[in-house]
Design a protein that fits this description.
Chain A is mostly helical. Chain A has helices at about 5-25, 35-65, 70-95, 100-120. Chain B is mainly α and about 140 residues long. Chain B: Keywords: Membrane, Transmembrane, Transmembrane helix.
Amino acid sequence: MVDVLATVLTFAAIGVAVWGLVLVVINRRFALNRPYGLALAGAVLLLELGLLVQLVTGLVNLFTTDRVVDQWTFAGYLAGPVLIVPLAGFWAAAERTRWGPAVLVIGCLTVPVLILRLRQIWDGHG
Amino acid sequence: MADLRETTRSGPGRLLIAVYAVFVIAATARSAVQIATRFDRAPLAYVLSAVAAVIYIVALVCLVKGSRTSRRIVVISCVVELVGVLVVGTVSLFAPQLFPDATVWSCYGRGYGFVPVVLPILGLWWIRVSGRAVAQ
């Protein structure tokens, strides 16, 4: 497992969540026609790209390792965030109130949890 | 009733739907893996995981639909969810031998930050609040 990437993704996801939380607090929607919204969308896109890289490298590691890993569960936790983050992004952008960024906060906060589980499964005590 | 639909799906309802979607993904994936790979180990727990997944799917779809009828189904599924999480949570505490492996509802959903016990209450609350908002 690529540990550096997992750590970077964990902090990136928390960063995007904090950004979303700020928008919730100052009562802004996830507006794609505003710089702060567009930058947030860019951050979500980067996060998604990172998660895709993690999916690919994770699957490669899974098939090349000698470890005994619960394969299906591991693959599920690899694919989960790849699915959740863009869905949260689209669902958030469709909302015209502060509840839009709130959706993004929840979506992004699942990422560190899933990565933590991924580590536990890889280490064999999932 | 486009108005009712819009009200159900927006504001806090949008966040509620997002959380339900996460639980649909989590519960469905979990029970699918459990049932497909090791059903013999804990059949009761895995069947309950699947039941939970189906209830979350029903609640999610009906919240997104937001019609008069689908909102009633949301109420029913929230009540079933609440009863389910309380019963399974209690049984898993006092008769853990029945659950050799965890379900979404074990220990009142502790493995999921107790969200499974809070979610149905929020669902019922939101149906009530959004219904009133449309009625006015």
